[in-house]
Amino acid sequence: MPEQSRTVTFKNVSKRYAGGVAAVDGVSVEVAGGSFVALVGASGSGKSTLLKTVNRLIEPSEGEVLVGGVAVGAEPVHLLRRRIGYVFQNVGLFPHMTVGENVAIGLRLAGEKDNAARIAELLDLVELPAEMAARFPDALSGGQRQRVGVARALACAPGIMLMDEPFGALDPVTRDALGKAIRALHDRLGLTTIMVTHDMAEALLLADRVLVMAGGKIVADATPRDLIAGKGGAAADALVAVPREQAHRLKELEG
Amino acid sequence: MAQAFARVPELLAQHLLLAFAALLLGLVVSLPLAILSARNKTVGRVALGLASLIQTIPSLALLALFYPILLSVSALVGGGIPALGFLPSLLALSLYAILPILRNGVTGLANLDPAVLEAADGVGMTRAQKLRLVEAPLVAPVLMAGVRTAAVWTIGAATLSTTVGQPSLGDLIFAGLQTQNWTLVLAGCAAAAGLALSADALLGLAEHGIARRKRGLVWGSLGVLLLAVLVALAPAMPSGKGTVIVGAKGFSEQYILARLIGQRLEDAGYKVEYREGLGSAVAFSALASGDIDVYVDYSGTVWTNQMKRADVPGREAIVAGVGAWCRDKYGMRMMGSLGFENVYAFAMRGDDARRLGVHSLVDLARIAPTLDLATDVEFLERPEWRSVRDTYGLRFKSAHPYQPTFMYRALASGEADVIPAFSSDGRIAADRLAVLSDPRGALPGYDAILMVSPRRANDAHFQAVLRPLIGGIRVEDMRTANYMVDRDTDKASPEAAARWLARRSGL
């Protein structure tokens, strides 16, 4: 898949709710195909809302979103979503389906049968044993569930991955392992990944580019290296200061 | 005992079919309604509100309401819609089945995990796929619990469909209540309860199967239910044109006469079914619409209730007038009087009447304000009562309606002092009641008349079988037969009393 077809472009996107509150306020930004972009900001900064305009879980009030140069509204919404992987904090595995059925749901929607080999391959991709396909979601740990969620999102070989706080509900160890796994998958499959997180450290360590949002606007747009170097501006610096200070204190403890 | 249970299989089958059809129709209506209600709050509020409102209507009233509704609908579309029997029962019971299914469906859909729904959208399901692959399977266990409730309610309420002429296990209960045959009541109750419990258990198994994802269990239990319906359906299929349906109102004389008619027809080779326990107006309309083929009515009842006549000419004039009116207006055939009268006759306990010196309705009017009146369920609403009340200026201390049998009980036990008894009732003599005369002729004659539906009005063979009944029954024999069924000990069934009456009358 050519890189341009995986480019995501926001053109003056706004989302206003009744009462005049603007969750997203005139955002224009382009995410290049193949890049790993983190959307960082406090709760209510509009980062999740912006992310969901890509797969039209939220329709913008103004502006438009393009994928590969084509407006997302140009085709039936379910077809659009099948080309875009979506992973979110609460995972939302279907409790009445086995892990295998969950992973293969996208294939099933596309009319494919005999997905056993593909299920095993997808589970392997997220470092889960193939035997797990027969289990039900309620028998899995939180980290395993999110891995299944990622495998499900990857089933139809999407060019784009949208991740909304994917590690939000996980313990730090699982979080770290899964973060690394996601980044490895991103590189290996050549995805365009947009990840929403409120954790600046995570964003700095995983992403190629960090967008900082506040009050519905993008207030900083820089590489992790530039952000650490203090080139991201005041709002970004405040967020970067926290992990930087934590890192220093940890270093002191090490002596 | 064995006799009481003899009709159980046939009625059980009818009961099961009715309840199952109602449940199915309830499902067909409430499932889409539940989905709409979950998607749109206004629809949900209105639908649930209406369903709850329906639930507050007593089931008997709901059944009764469908009779005039269907009559007017039928009139509107030019006839052809039966207002009695299966259709009104089906509709009323289906309405009853809606609430539990709808409520559980809406609750189930509203309580689905939002994350699961977001995931369904996220993977690119269409609305239909989301419903089929995610919402339906997740709501199924909750929904199934609602279906179980609906099934139990429907099976219970189906016993009341007897009153609108649909055979059900209620036939046994109503007939038993009327003739004080407690074995019959028990047979009806036990069978209905057994049916409800079995259906509930089978649906419970299916619910368990759905929740535990055991498909075999789900299909197995639903399969047994379906099989039961098919078995019940088998005898219902061939019946149709050759079957004669004999109607009866809800008191002993009517049960006996229906059997007398039925037995003659069976001897002549007809297949006979009974619709018993019908209300007066219901029985008449059922004949007019052809839902029943033949029944016995009383000339004065038709005269005052259907013809709305207030004048009271002689007995013969009333019979002739009724015959002509029924023929001209409905194309029915009134074959003639059976030979005896069953008038409303005001009666008191014999010793009371003597002590108070009451011999006629004129005497009664004098002391009525100190007396309690007990009547059958219809009497206080009938024009005869208004006529008698206004003619004699009757004002009682209180007036309570009872089932006819309990009306006699109320008089015997002193709860009431006066009743409008039936002159052909054996209990008048047995209970030593004093019958008060009607010197001003306020009550019309009530000759028992044989009524034949328009469909059979020109059926010479059919009428030839019944002709010997005309003028064939003496009032004292009818009284004895009634008493055989009504008395407290050594009771006879209506069938047995009918056979006795046939022998006694040389029929």
3D architecture notes:
The complex is a heterodimer of chains A (255) and B (507). Chain A is of the alpha/beta class and 255 residues long. Chain A has helices at residues 47-52, 77-82, 99-103, 105-109, 116-125, 142-154, 172-189, 200-206, 224-228, 234-254, and strands spanning 8-16, 22-31, 36-41, 62-67, 70-71, 84-88, 160-164, 192-197, 209-214, 217-222. Chain A has a domain at 3-83 and 158-254: Rossmann fold. Chain A is built from 10 helices and 10 strands. In chain A, the strands form 2 sheets. Chain A has a 6-stranded mixed β-sheet. In chain A, strands 2-1-4-5 form a 4-stranded antiparallel β-sheet. The mean pLDDT of chain A is 92. Chain B has 3 domains: 2-236, MetI-like (MetI-like fold, Orthogonal Bundle); 243-340 and 450-504, D-Maltodextrin-Binding Protein, domain 2, CATH 3.40.190; 344-435, Osmoprotection protein (prox), domain 2 (D-Maltodextrin-Binding Protein, domain 2, 3-Layer(aba) Sandwich), CATH 3.40.190.120. Chain B has 22 helices and 10 strands. In chain B, α8 runs antiparallel to α9. The longest helix of chain B has 32 residues, at 8-39. The two termini of chain B are 28 Å apart. The interface between A and B is medium-sized, with 23 and 20 residues.
Write the layout of secondary structure elements.
The complex is a heterodimer of chains A (255) and B (507).
Chain A: E1 8-16, E2 22-31, E3 36-41, H1 47-52, E4 62-67, E5 70-71, H2 77-82, E6 84-88, H3 99-103, H4 105-109, H5 116-125, H6 142-154, E7 160-164, H7 172-189, E8 192-197, H8 200-206, E9 209-214, E10 217-222, H9 224-228, H10 234-254
Parallel strand pairs in A: 3-8, 3-9, 6-7, 7-8
Antiparallel strand pairs in A: 1-2, 1-4, 4-5, 9-10
Helix pairs in contact in A: 5-6
Chain B: H1 2-6, H2 8-39, H3 41-56, H4 59-76, H5 86-110, H6 114-122, H7 127-157, H8 170-178, H9 182-211, H10 215-236, E1 243-249, H11 252-267, E2 271-278, H12 280-289, E3 294-298, H13 299-306, H14 315-330, E4 333-341, E5 344-349, H15 350-356, H16 361-367, E6 372-376, H17 383-392, E7 398-402, H18 404-413, E8 418-422, H19 427-430, E9 433-435, E10 447-452, H20 460-466, H21 475-486, H22 494-504
Parallel strand pairs in B: 1-2, 6-7
Antiparallel strand pairs in B: 3-10, 4-10, 5-8, 5-9
Helix pairs in contact in B: 2-3, 2-5, 2-7, 2-9, 2-10, 3-5, 4-5, 5-7, 6-7, 7-9, 8-9, 9-10, 11-22, 13-14, 21-22
